[in-house]
Amino acid sequence: MEWFSEFWGGLDLLRQVLYCIAVPGTLVLIVQTVLMFFGIGGESAEFDMGVEAADLTTTGADGFGIMGLFTFQGIIAFFCVFGWSGIVVMNATGIVALSLALAFILGFAAMYGVARVIRAMTKLAVSGTLNMKLLIGETGVVYIPIPEDKSKRGKVNVQLSERIVECEAISETGALATNTPVRVTDIIGGNVLVVEKM
Questions:
Q1: Angle at which helices 13-37 and 72-93 cross, to 10°
Q2: d(CA 154, CA 190)
Q3: How many angstroms separate the CA atoms of 19 and 80, rounded?
Q4: In the chain, N or C terminus with fewer CB closer than 10 Å?
Q5: 3-class secondary structure for 80-92?
Q6: C-alpha to C-alpha distance for 52 and 120, rounded to whole angstroms
Q7: CA-to-CA distance for 39 and 34, rounded, in angstroms?
């Protein structure tokens, strides 16, 4: 470890600080990337300062707000790029102010880019949750007979876009046998369809 002592001792304070920012940031970024390849941690892309990447303080027409920058990945990207670009510019020019200014600009650009990628990924994500209200007005077929007594339920298959949805149902028009065509008129209890014979 003598080489490290010589290397570290030969650095000025600013370069030491930049290395202390760049190296841990890079290590975390590498670990994070490897874990994502194995499917671990990808769902935590919105770990942030209490703000989800898909639900941000809006400032633009596309709903992207400044708080969307402060995701875990964005902060790590900032530290990584800030540290390494600061070291490179400092070694190339030796000008402290220029090094810090360019490091900040490039770090912020990296953080912004990561936030944009996360935002795009959340828009591509498809929720498996069905909005039951979309079924109102749709037609379907009785799958399990619906009794006349509204306290008892049958089941219907309703087509919504290209998806067949099986739901519990009660009838407004008396008992309905299997294969009876129906139309959804209402939803009760959040997930029980009210249907009528067509």
A1: 140
A2: 16
A3: 10
A4: N
A5: HHHHHHHHHHHHH
A6: 13
A7: 9
**Residue 33 near residue 27, CB atoms below 8 Å:** no
From first to last of its 198 residues, what are the pLDDT tens digits of the chain?
A: 788 888 888 888 989 999 999 999 999 988 888 887 776 755 444 443 334 433 444 444 444 556 567 778 888 999 999 999 999 999 999 899 999 999 999 999 999 888 888 777 766 655 556 677 888 888 889 988 988 877 788 899 988 777 788 888 998 778 888 888 999 898 888 788 889 888
Of residues 137, 142, 148, the one with CA closest to residue 174: 148
What lies within 8 Å, CB to CB, of 10 at 6+ separation is: none
The pTM of the whole model exceeds 0.85: no
Concatenated DSSP letters for the chain?
Answer: -HHHHHHHHTS-HHHHHHHHHHHHHHHHHHHHHHHHHTTSSGGGTT-BSS-BTTB----STT---GGGG-BHHHHHHHHHHHHHHHHHHHHHH--HHHHHHHHHHHHHHHHHHHHHHHHHHHHH-------GGGGTT-EEEEEEPBPSSTTS-EEEEEEETTEEEEEEEEESSS-B-TT-EEEEEEEETTTEEEEEE-
